[in-house]
């Protein structure tokens, strides 16, 4: 498995951030994990590193409900900068919301690869990483 995967967690729940990071660190393929408490922090990071492929994440796990800038607002901004991003970034919207409105809204955004309902289990993460590698996306 690719040993140079950068992961970004965008979620205001510090416990979720901690458990996701701890679970991801168990995979040998993860090089770096960065976390942001809201979409604005994550967007600022993206804008600061647009042409720095080594710093940009390969995968983003994006929560919907956050203060300052929520996941959908982040995606509105990401769609605008997407053509300038120096690499392919795979985005998963992750939420405890099972509301069909949220799920359908996420599905309509082509840059979102999938909608995952929290909590994400270790086996799910392993399957996601394995499938991405198998598909040649990592």
Give structural attributes.
138 residues, Rossmann fold, 5 helices, globular
What would you say about this model in short?
This protein has helices spanning 14-25, 39-48, 71-81, 100-107, 122-134, and strands at residues 5-10, 30-36, 59-63, 90-95, 112-117. The protein is an alpha/beta fold and 138 residues long.
Structure characterization notes:
- By secondary structure, the protein is α/β, with parallel strands linked by helices.
- The protein has one domain: Rossmann fold (3-Layer(aba) Sandwich).
- Helix content is 39%, strand content 22%.
- A 5-stranded parallel sheet has the order 2-1-3-4-5, sandwiched between helices.
- The longest helix has 13 residues, at 122-134.
- The chain is globular, with a radius of gyration of 14 Å.
- Keywords: Phosphoprotein.
- This is Response regulator receiver domain-containing protein.
- Residues 6-133 form the Response regulatory domain.
